[in-house]
Task: structure prediction
Amino acid sequence: MLIASQLEPTYARTVYPCFDEPAMKATFNIRIVHDPSYVALSNMPAIDVSEMKDENGSLWTVTTFNTSLKMSTYLTAFVICDFDYVTRTERGNEIRIWARKEAVKNGYVDYALSITGQIFSFLEDLLNISYPLPKTDLVALPDFGAGAMENWGLMTFQESSLMYLPSDKFTSRKAMIAVIVSHELGHQWFGNLVTMNWWNDLWLNEGLASYFEYLGATFVEPKLSLNEIFYDHVVQPVLREDNEIGVRSLSESEDKIKGSFSLMSLFDSITYNKGASITWMLSGFLTEKLFIRALTSYLKEFSFSNANQDDLWTHIQMVVDAQDEVQLPASVKQIMDSWTCQNGFPVLTLNLTTGTISQEQFLNKKNENNTDSHNNTWIIPISWMRNGSSQPLMWLDKSSKVFPEMQVLESEYDWILLNVNLSGYYRVNYDRLNLKRLAHLLENDPKAIPAVSRFQLIDDVFALTQFGYIQIETALELTKYLAREDELFIWNVVLLNLVPENLESTLKNYEVYPLLKKYLLKRMLPIYHYYAGFIRQNVDALEDDYFAQVYLEKLFATACWLGLQDCLNLSSELYAKWMDNPEYKIPFLIRRTVCCYGVAVGSDKEWNFAWEMYNHTDSTKEDKDILLSAMSCAKESWLLYRYLQYGLSDTLFSSNCTSIIIFYVVTKDIGHRIAWEFVTENWPLLSERYGKELLHDVLKVMGRFVNTDVQIQELQVFYNATLEEDERVATTLLLEFTKFENMERRELLIKVANWLQKNVDD
Result:
């Protein structure tokens, strides 16, 4: 048995009567009556443990905790468990990490213990404000809806966010734990000590904690490259989302939130990632020294109290006014409100010949509703380089402006790069002249452009293509150099754009596939062979290569998907090795790909082995999922059909696996038809057994993978025959959308094919 609380945002009121508002801070006296064989934890240290009898004469333990500091209701917390802990004291703060007894005994929380104190001290020294509590408990919960929660003095985590198996050689797991622990520790200052006035400024908690999580993580794991990981994990994903019509701004008015948003919906990538990206940009143009100085002053003034966004701007302004090294083009509030109070972000267009930069909101030009010009302008810091040397920071504070320094004559070979190392939260659209020069530079000397800027260049051109700012051919020009690209995180963004996961089965059907195969493989070989060498000889040598652990799988999967013989051979070799000795572990970095292609290249013998291993009791949840997916990679129709039949059987699977199996089969090129026939044939049984929920998932997925209009019609006929009226409307909309997407995709693929045709032999 285990009891733990999660009170953010508004659940404290369901536990005890209170004014459950973040600004109504109070001190709390907590006492818990519980079974004597359990331990009770709360925000503060226990000051008394006594016994009492109830009316039946049973014994209970009463644990009384010290009075809390002045704090918000949503941060009060308690856990009642029979866990063990490991402990270490850092600067008088007793840190304990609690987990299931066997997990503690096996050393699973030792890593977390070794970094928690270090990160605490790092933050105390950086912010120059000491942590006010005498103890800190971190608890690993076997089941927990949130990733982690920063309750003051009693932080809770999912087990996977806090546990590191000493046998695990690879740092990516450590990195994830370091990031999550740093995030929650960052909250002890941003959120707990100083809390936002109300939820509409939630980003003051989450954005700042998401910024500090990367500083803390790279402090304890110095081998991680801070700006590459920050850009890859934080900025790039939110730039992909922050351009839909309905996206809210970072800081909305209270009335608007109360009127139209649920509080839970505020805990999203805008609050976390955009908040962190804007903070990163702010720290960049102020310099970290001034930024931290301003934060310290802000934290000191509002300790044990509440603040809003303007309070933070005021403290930054005070620090800026007190020095003369950093000059800003406007007040901090004017600059920052343009980023936090408007939704979306700008795209900058540079004209090399005139040296003009203009800005507009980045919106999908293919979308009719977006043509009415949004007159939003931002005050934009521009870090830039010319011919490889960094230039002084520039500011664009109106819709367009001429920068004589950026004028380049046709005859010269000068090139210009804006937003170097993604210091600003925006995209850049270069004119053809500059793009040609950048493409030329990449082919001759890719390292002249910093890695993060290469990533950004490629991500920007594909995003600009998608939204109709430039032609796909322009984006493809920038991929010619890739044989010289040795950074996996850059390859990953290329592959996400050229071979999106949900299109693998579609691309196989088109004439673009053999061209793509020839063009991409030629460029992938150097990096593929570099990593294949490690896989064959000494995979442990990659233990500090963070991006190999996160992205090697995608590179290998693509190589195998493109039919690279060495990749297929490697997969069968390693899979055969596992079949000979089930104790053998396929390298974790490419296990999913090896299992998939081991089954694909093999016959029923390989498939049956996967099935047998899946049913092994001691395989982990992760391995089970890998095998579920691998069994759908079979290339023989009867195996896939049998697999789907297995999926129907009560005895072999829990019902939630059925939809996963259908999903895996439907996304494979030969599985698509088989899954479709299977679902239509077994519909009565499926719908009787699994009810509406599962079927909706299945139908949605089917809809996503229909590739031709004929298939869409089939699906529509089927929906009409089986669905209720109201469901039909939703699914019809989905199909309409799919149809439109198919049309667009076909046009795009024709263009790509034509371009590849011309360039495939370069």
